[in-house]
Recover the amino acids of this structure.
């Protein structure tokens, strides 16, 4: 049987577009790779529990989301999945950039902490705004509200854990303003995406279509 026909049959069976199906398969492969010999399996599982909840929610909304919206949601979950493997605080991006370009970002920018969590929170604002497609003020409200809810949930979970496990899960890395910075970056991501979308809609090329 033709591979394209197989894909079409599977997509129809689960009522997904072909793009949604293949992006979900790619995400599943990424999840599997991150679980190969994990250095912190318990903490990774704790972080991944939220990913599982998000996937269930995404699946329930699959008929309402087009392929682009679906892809934006999985981009964020992919970054979160990568971060979960190294419990956010130990993502080896310096090793990656050193191998690719011969530079270590922490040395270039004089960073004294791992900033991968900042990237994930900024991306959350970008991706959620791209998925929701709301006006900029409404997007900002939703991103700030859900970011605050996540920080409260993170705090509540940490309160039930031993101090060393709580620190590993939260990934504050000694920063007392960690939650504030995370929410601010999520809001910035939402604002950037909203303004970019607004500018694209108002561009001459868009208005002449």
């Amino acid at each position: 049987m033709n591979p394209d026909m197989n894909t079409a049959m599977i997509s129809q069976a689960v009522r997904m577009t072909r793009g949604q199906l293949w992006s979900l398969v790619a995400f599943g492969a990424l999840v599997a790779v991150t679980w190969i010999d994990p250095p912190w399996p318990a903490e990774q599982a704790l972080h991944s529990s939220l990913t599982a909840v998000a996937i269930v929610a995404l699946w329930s909304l699959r008929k309402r989301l087009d392929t682009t919206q679906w892809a934006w949601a999985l981009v964020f979950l992919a970054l979160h999945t990568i971060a979960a493997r190294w419990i956010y605080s130990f993502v080896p991006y310096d090793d990656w950039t050193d191998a690719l370009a011969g530079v270590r970002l922490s040395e270039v920018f004089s960073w004294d902490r791992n900033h991968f969590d900042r990237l994930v929170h900024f991306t959350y604002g970008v991706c959620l705004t791209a998925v929701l497609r709301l006006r900029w003020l409404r997007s900002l409200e939703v991103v700030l509200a859900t970011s605050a809810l996540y920080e409260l949930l993170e705090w509540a979970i940490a309160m039930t854990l031993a101090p060393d496990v709580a620190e590993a899960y939260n990934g504050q890395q000694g920063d007392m303003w960690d939650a504030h910075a995370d929410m601010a970056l999520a809001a910035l991501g939402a604002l950037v995406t909203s303004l970019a979308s607004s500018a694209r809609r108002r561009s001459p090329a868009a208005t002449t279509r």
Remarks:
- The chain has eleven helices and no strands.
- The longest helix spans residues 178-202.
- The chain has one domain: 19-207.
